[in-house]
Each structure stands twice: as C-alpha cells, then as structure tokens.
Design brief:
384 residues, 21 strands, 12 helices, alpha/beta, Enolase-like, domain 1
Length: 384
C-alpha cells in the first residue's frame, strides 16, 4: 500500500497563530443529531515556518497550539518521517480516534505543504497527480430549513452544474428527537428531486440518527425514490448494524466514514457492506491513509468520497484517475468560503486546481476577518 516516505529534514523556526472570536453563520445549520449550530468551527489559523523560509498555512484548534507547538518548536531538525512517527506514537494512549490524533494529521498536512513548496510544485502534483481537476458534489440542506428554502438551495446547486446534491434527513421532535417524522423526509426528497430535475442525482445524510430498525424502515420507504446513496443511517461505529441492514434486505448504497480517523476503521466497513467510503481530509490522523482507502476502494470496486473543507480536499481529489467514481463533498453551505482566498473554481461538477503555485495555495482572508471583528489576537511562537 502507498505510504508517504519523505526523508527531507525539517526544522520548525516560527509559528504565528491568529486566534478567532466565534464567527457566526449567516443562518444556523443543524443536522439530525445536532451537528454544526450557529458558529463556524474554525478556532484559528496558523502560519508554520521552517528553516528554508517555507510557510504552511492551515486552520487549527487552540489545542493544537497548546499541545503540538511546544513539541515541534524545540530547535530540533528531523526528517518528515521522523517527525510524523514520533508525534503519531506519542498520542497512542489518547486513541487514534481522538482530537490529539487529528492534530497529528494536521501537522502531517502542514509538513506536506512545506515539502511541496520546497519542491516548487503544487501539492497535488508533488504527491503524484497527473490532472489538475477534481470531481465534486454539493451538500447542505440543513434539517431546519423549510421545504421551499431547501428546494431553492438544491436547485441552485444543480443550476451551478453539480451532478449530485445531498441534504439532511432524520426529521424529529422532542428534547432528544425521540419522535421521528419520516413522512417529512419523504416529502422533502420528492420535492428536491422535482426541483433539481431528472438528470441530477439526489443523496441524503442521516447523520447517524436511526437505530437499525428505524434505518431499515427508512430505507424501505425510500426504496422507490432511487436515492443515489444513504449516508450514515446508524451509529458510525455500529459495524454489525451495517451488516444487519444488508442482511435484512436494504438495497440502497450505504455510505460512511467521515467520523473515522484512521485507515483500519475502513476495512470493517467494507466487510460489513458499506459501498461508499468517506474519509475526511481534515479529520485523519495520517494523510496518506487517504491513499490507502483509495486503494481499498479500487480493490473492492467501491466508490470513494471525501468531505470537509472542499478547498483543501479538491487538491487531493486529483490523486484519483479519471475512470474512477470519485467525488468530493463541496459544502457550499459553509460560508467559510467567503473568508478564504485562492479557492479552486467550481464549474460543471469539477474543481479546477491551481497548477502553478507551490504547496497548498488556499489561504484565509485575514484582512477581511480582522475587518469584520473576528480576529481576537495574533501571537508569535519561537523555539524555546
């Protein structure tokens, strides 16, 4: 299997952290189990410099600043391999599904950015891509949107050229969403299909809302609607629940994976019957796990997708051949795009990538963030 193997020495010389105040969403966004809310998830933005003058840029958590920076801003010079190996195993007792593991993946991505800049190649070409585009679908459609607003959003995505749209299902009420309203979900699916037209595929995301029995009922009710896939119908770790759904006769393709952080979690998905694997770039503990999951999909003739920050994901979407069914989630409902620079252009279901700027060219628009009053502080960190 593919594993990154870069012996290039790296010495980290400075970090600059831009600490954000809570950045409100234009509209609250919620899924069936309460994801998102009223604020963007971004806590801050980091510039990480090495001894050659290269600088990686990425959104990071405050925990990354508190826990990771002291471990790497220590004056030591090590290879990419050594840095990653050391930090990866340092967090083993926290668990490879933990926030600490995700922070290791963040460091991994920033080191790859630095190495690509040194090689004077854009990140996708540096990692072996032979094309400068990535296919994508668009998702959004909060569970709290009214029917008309939901249809307008999905129709806009279709008009922009996307071939697949996805929205949230799992309508319910009660303090903990105990009472399900599947008839609302069915009505909305039919309305969206009519709004986008017959040539646009429609998928739904349950966000782990249902029990196995409830998921089976939902799948049987939606069977005549020919959904492109049903995403995370049950708890993401309930591998045997997936197997039970397939044994019970669920015919639709099931998708899962955005809640997982490590390659090994995807092998049981394949064994239990998941047809679409969905790792998320910004949540992995090792970035080359994306390529291992790609190869797993190739081996079993499955589909690969990836969610999260589309502007970054798109560059990794180029690592898949043109004849593979690979799509990247372009969550245009995330207004963070309005606060970013150098975002790849999206047209006719594809992102067109920057084939000239070394590294990862995407940047946060710090001037705009400061002008809007969302920048709380700027702190420089140097080796101790």
């Amino acid at each position: 299997m593919n594993t990154f193997d870069f012996s290039d020495p790296i010495q980290f010389t400075k970090a600059v952290f831009y600490n954000f105040r809570p950045i409100p969403l234009p509209k609250p966004f919620r899924d069936a189990t309460g994801g998102m809310g009223t604020f963007m998830p971004e806590q801050g933005y980091l510039e990480l410099y090495d001894d050659t003058g290269a600088c990686a840029h990425y959104t990071v958590t405050r925990a990354f600043v508190a826990n990771m920076l002291p471990r790497i801003l220590n004056g030591q010079k090590k290879s990419y391999n050594a840095w990653r190996h050391e930090q990866y195993w340092k967090i083993r007792n926290s668990g490879f599904q933990s926030a600490d593991a995700v922070n290791v993946g963040t460091l991994d991505l920033m080191m790859l950015d630095i190495l690509a800049q040194r090689a004077e190649n854009p990140i996708h070409r540096f990692l072996g891509a032979e094309k400068d585009w990535a296919a994508a679908y668009k998702g959004g459609g909060a569970i709290i949107r009214e029917d008309e607003e939901l249809c307008e959003e999905m129709a806009r995505y279709a008009a922009e050229g996307t071939k697949t749209v996805k929205f949230k299902v799992g309508s319910s009420s009660g303090e903990m969403g105990e009472t399900l309203y599947m008839e609302r979900d069915l009505r909305r699916i039919e309305k969206v299909q009519k709004a986008v037209g017959p040539h646009v595929r429609v998928a739904v995301d349950c966000n782990q809302k249902f029990t196995v029995e409830q998921a089976y009922t939902f799948c049987k009710l939606t069977e005549p609607l020919n959904l492109e896939w049903i995403e995370e119908p049950i708890h993401s770790h309930d591998y045997n629940g997936i197997r039970r759904l397939k044994e019970m006769g669920v015919k639709q393709r099931l998708a899962a994976g955005e809640s997982m952080r490590i390659y090994y979690a995807y092998e049981p998905y394949v064994e239990k019957g998941i047809e679409i694997l969905q790792p998320s770039l910004g949540r992995m503990s090792r970035i080359d796990d994306l390529l291992k999951i790609r190869d797993l999909c190739r081996q079993h003739h499955l589909e690969f997708q990836s969610g999260g920050r589309a502007a970054y994901n798109a560059y990794f979407g180029a690592l898949y051949s043109e004849d593979e069914r690979v799509e990247f989630h372009a969550p245009i409902s995330e207004p963070v795009h309005d606060l970013m620079l150098n975002v790849p252009e999206f047209k006719d279901g594809r992102f067109t990538l920057d084939a000239h700027t070394p590294g990862i060219p995407v940047r946060m628009n710090l001037e705009k963030i400061e002008a809007l009053g969302y920048l709380e502080s700027r702190t420089i960190y140097l080796p101790e």
